[in-house]
Records
---
Amino acid sequence: MVQRLDARKVAMQVIEVAAGIIAHEGRYLIARRKAGSHLGGLWEFPGGKRETGETLEECLHRELWEELNVRISAPTPFQVVRHEYPEKVVELHFFCCRIATGVAIAVDCAELRWVYAHEMASFEFPPADQSIIEALQQGTV
């Protein structure tokens, strides 16, 4: 049997994203995406797209500064999740980290919340984040 490749998916560029699993006193920081953006209104672990020439760690530091106005501790790699949406392919690099300086404010997102892992089921997240939520709920982070 000959398997045909979907030419559209073959041509799709993989978008690399760095995301922070930011913990403080047993809770995790989640951000709500702005309406009108890709996956607008859904909750996520804050972060963003890697720019040309920067490492994933540099990306995470930059994105959390731009989005939340915080500086973080050295991020520790946790898990990589590749997810195919109909319009794009994303490769999410999740890092565990803590806020080193600053207080998180919603600079470039609609809203922020500090939540316990068991509360995450009450929030709507993108499909790509589900394995991370399960890991948090099972205490494997």
---
Amino acid sequence: MSDPARVEATVAQFEAGLRDSLESPSRIRGWVSDQLFGLIAADLGGCKLVKQEDAGILFYEDEVKLPDWRLTLVSGENILVEVKAEDDHHAQAFKLRLVEVARLRRYAELNDCPLYIAVHWLAVSMWTLVPIDDYVRVGDHFEIDLETAFKRNHMSSLLNDRMLGLTPPLEFRLTMKEVPGEDRAPEVEGEPEEDGTRKLSLVTTGVRMFAGGEEMVDKNETALVWFLIQHARWPCDERLEDSGDGVWKMVFTMAPDECHAEQGFDLVGSLSELYTRMFYSGTTSLEDETTKLSIDVEPGTLPRLVPTDLKSDRLPLWHFHINPSAPVAVEDP
């Protein structure tokens, strides 16, 4: 421990390993998805304890692989979860190597805990949590197709995930007032340039948020709508309006491509999906490059932003708990 050469050699070994990992995009995606799942599990409200499992010293007799997380559910049941990321935007199935499944299963058996595989489908920012027994062996690997993964998804039944519905559109409105520019005389401010363009100096004088045409006035309503505007799956349009008398409005509007006015709501996304989009907004650059492995966020963010007891005539919410379908029985050949 006191030998400087050995200390330097150890630091160099850590540095080499870190640089090697940072040069592997797939490994970084795996790290990010791993950390993200733990935060989601802690925030959805379905767990009493969320513990990182694949850390610390391990002595074993048979070949095992430690899954990423151990979750103690509100029911008191313990489950083990291995987290994976599927970055193929056209993937129709997710695959696991035979040897990896065997080692994960052995560890689960030694701990007398059911084993689940959490897959982060990066293309849609969505998650599935499926028992390993729902995977089927195909040749030299185990796999689950996309349709079955979502049919057998336990994110809601175990972790309290839910789909959120509300009346579109969502709107964020900025009111701005023309002011003279610092480097131009007030009397020429806003006049057309030679190429036909105009230069305006504006100052924001008001911020308003709307959902379904109703203005949000309560702080909980406003916080929720602002969160959804930033991270919902709906496409966003923006426009600048001249209201006259030097007043301008910048309006950002979000609505689904196809609205269902007859039912009174449209799905804006699941809580895990919204959390995932929030997470990636803080860890990814505009060029879609990973800049951080995690974000500084306090547990309980989602319950504060999307409270289950919010009752508002201005902002009616639909919470959908989606239970997994029963597994399909496989007949012996």
